[in-house]
Amino acid sequence: MKNFLNIKFVIIILFTLKLTSCKAQTMPLNASEYDAPTNTYFKDLNNELDPYVGTWKATFQGKTITLVVTKELKRPYAILGKNFLKDIIIIRYEVKDSNANILQTTLPEAYLAGDRVRNLIMSLGTNLNSNNELNLVYAGGNCSVGLGEIIIKMINSTQFSWNYSPGTTVRNDIDCPPNQDYNIYLPETENLVFTKQ
């Protein structure tokens, strides 16, 4: 009788594990979350994000901008009341003036899931408009000033073009104390060419 109970217990555990594993599934990177079950993993199956990974530099209006682009696997996020995982690009950056003084840097930031998102640049997806681009969102700096969309498009294996247009460039003195830095240091321009280092 004891062996029968052990076998029954093992069968119940295996059945439970099977049901749990069936609920989570892997889908292509740009598939919609709308009909996807909770815990779906949106995976970079075709390595679309890989060409962007690395260190990139450009000069704009006398400033040197360095981007450090990394790929993060299985980044957790929630949308539509469900939890998901997704492969994403995160960009950390440093902006220096013409005398090599650092105006702003996010290079030491970890940007762990659930942390604050100030100055975070994170991908939303690739080819969202069927145009071979990487679409990103910039969370903005203090009080979200600079919040906006960044689009980068590969020119070749060593260069990409950068388009950034902030959607939020204003603040109010009630919620945002006047003693903070509200400058936007990222290059607000179109077709700025970054070169891989």
List the helices and strands and how they pair.
Elements: H1 2-23, E1 26-28, E2 41-43, E3 54-60, E4 63-79, E5 82-96, E6 102-105, E7 121-126, E8 133-138, E9 148-156, E10 159-166, E11 192-196
Parallel strand pairs: 1-2, 2-5
Antiparallel strand pairs: 3-4, 3-11, 4-5, 5-6, 5-7, 7-8, 8-9, 9-10, 10-11
Summary tags:
197 residues, 11% helix, 42% strand
What does this structure look like?
The chain is mostly beta strands. The protein has one domain (2-196). 11% of the residues lie in helices and 42% in strands. The chain has 1 helix and 11 strands; from the N terminus they run αβββββββββββ. Strands 3-4-5-7-8-9-10-11 form an 8-stranded antiparallel beta barrel. The model is unreliable at 1-22 (pLDDT under 50). It holds the Pfam family DUF6705. Residues 1-26 form the signal peptide. Keywords: Signal. InterPro entries: DUF6705.
In terms of DSSP E residues, the strand content is 35-45%
Specify the biggest β-sheet. 8 strands, antiparallel, barrel
Strand order across the largest sheet: 3-4-5-7-8-9-10-11
Radius of gyration over alpha carbons? 21 Å
**Residues in helix, %:** 10-25%
The N- to C-terminal Cα distance equals 69 Å
Our count of helices gives 1
Q: Return the string of H and E elements.
A: HEEEEEEEEEEE
Structural class call reads mainly beta
Contiguous runs where pLDDT drops below 50 for at least 5 residues: 1-22
Shape: globular
Mean pLDDT: 86
